[in-house]
Amino acid sequence: MRVRPRGVLSSAARSQAVYRDATAFDELLTRATCTQALQEAGVAPGALDVVELHDAFAIEEVLYVEAMGLCKPGQAIPALKAGEFHIGGKVAVSPSGGLIAMGTRSAPPASARSPSSRSSCAARPGSGNSPGRARASRTWSA
Predict the structure, then answer these.
(1) Quick check: is 8 in a domain?
(2) Half-sphere exposure of 116 (CA within 13 A, CB side)
(3) Whole-angstrom Cα distance, residue 85 to residue 49?
(4) Widest distance between CA atoms in the chain
(5) Would 104 be classed as within a structural domain?
(6) What is the pLDDT at residue 104?
(7) Between 3 and 76, whose confidence is greater?
(8) Is the per-residue pLDDT at 141 higher than 70?
(9) CA 46: distance to chain centroid?
(10) Angstrom distance (rounded) from CA 5 to CA 33
(11) 46 part of a folded domain
(12) What are φ and ψ of residue 71, in 5° steps?
């Protein structure tokens, strides 16, 4: 049985601000934007099945899953090693392979992953994506 994704429940965009911790501006901006989108959608981070990230650098996935509340601070690496961010895990993060896999040089490929994100959300036996769970695909450009 194939279940179609619900669609986009919320979309949020924010501009970078001046942060007290200038070394963590990317995570702080991601946290604020994601919190806004999840609140507008009425969804908790733990209810997500799929998340597509703008991960132009390998470290960004680690920083962003923590900033989005998909795991506790400092736990992204152990969660990644345990398979929590794989298809069938706690939440599939960038199942398309991410921007790095696409050889990106700019933001447009992020939006090109939308069809991949939607097909990844479909419930399949053994996929970890069940019809009753909230589905969301979040792609943003930096």
Answers:
(1) no
(2) 20
(3) 10
(4) 49
(5) yes
(6) 60
(7) 76
(8) no
(9) 11
(10) 22
(11) yes
(12) -155, 165
d(CA 9, CA 42): 9
CB 43, CB 128: distance < 8 Å: no
Instruction: Report helix, strand or coil for 41.
Output: helix
Cα angle: 98, vertex 37, 50; to 5 degrees: 35
* DSSP notation for 106-133: SSHHHHHTHHHHHHHHS--TTSS--TTS
Distance separating alpha carbons of residues 99 and 68, to the nearest angstrom? 18
Give per-residue pLDDT as tens, 39-94. Answer: 998 989 988 888 888 777 778 889 999 999 999 999 999 999 999 999 999 999 98
Strands (E), 53-127: 92-93
Domain of residue 46, residue span: 22-121
Two structure tokens written together for 69: 């509340």
Q: Let me know the angle formed at the C-alpha of 14 by 138 and 63, rounded to the nearest 5 degrees.
A: 55
Summarize the confidence of residues 18-43 as an average pLDDT.
Answer: 86
The neighbour count for residue 66, using CB atoms within 10 Å, is: 20
Domain count, the chain: 1
User: In this structure, is residue 1 part of a structural domain?
Assistant: no
Q: Please report, for residues 12, 17, 72, 121, 131, the alpha-carbon distance to residue 36 in angstroms, rounded to integers and kept in the order given.
A: 7, 15, 19, 22, 25
